[in-house]
Design goal:
Layout: H1 7-16, H2 23-35, H3 39-43, H4 54-66, H5 72-82, H6 97-106, H7 110-114, H8 118-142, H9 147-194
């Protein structure tokens, strides 16, 4: 009845129709509004008033959660209200860019590990270790004034500073990516509920 891109049609049908929507149509309208990211209009829709259907209640909780930045304690409250489907197992806590940068300054790549990027941690640690070993060998064999040492030290500096910078960026992206994953899984879960 309502397809993915038919929010406008659904809105026109609902606003111009004197007919009462049946439960299936309400669920599909709600899902259509969620897919279009129309969270606030969904929450203020007339067809939700005095509604006790569990699917529509889950849709309204999803819209409420996705319409505003979510803190860790709010996510816990939402989990308690509706159970713990895979949709809500994400940790939406923010990662501190300062801590990520500091960790990477102390141990190269550890800021990426702090943000949950294990492969990037291993890569950064290996690359920085290899360049540090190369620079140390150049210093021992050729001394501080050799071109080999200078080039190795410059590359080591680029990798080290880049490692810190990208750890800061990863920490800033962390919350946004977790939110997008939650939004995607919530829409999939709502689609499954409506199609049951």
């Amino acid at each position: 009845w309502f397809e993915k891109d038919s929010f406008r049609l659904a809105e026109v049908y609902y606003s111009n129709s004197e007919n009462v929507l049946d439960l299936r149509q309400k669920r599909e309208l709600g899902l259509s509004m969620l897919r279009q990211r129309k969270y606030m209009p969904f929450l203020s829709a007339d067809f939700l008033k005095n509604e006790k259907d569990s699917v529509l209640l889950f849709q309204s909780m999803t819209a409420s959660a996705l319409s505003q930045p979510m803190k860790k304690n709010e996510l816990t409250e939402l989990r308690d209200k509706i159970g713990t489907p895979s949709v809500l197992r994400l940790d939406l806590g923010k990662k501190s860019p300062f801590i990520a940068g500091l960790c990477s300054a102390i141990i190269p790549g550890s800021g990426k590990l702090y943000c949950g990027r294990k492969h990037q941690f291993i890569n950064a640690l290996l690359m920085n270790s290899l360049w540090a070993a190369q620079t140390y060998e150049a210093k021992v064999k050729d001394g501080y004034n050799s071109p080999r040492f200078i080039v190795s030290a410059v590359f080591l500096s680029f990798f080290y500073i880049g490692n810190i910078w990208t750890s800061v960026i990863e920490a800033k992206k962390y919350h946004y990516e977790q939110y997008k994953e939650l939004e995607h899984e919530a829409l999939e879960y709502n689609t499954l509920l409506v199609n049951q």
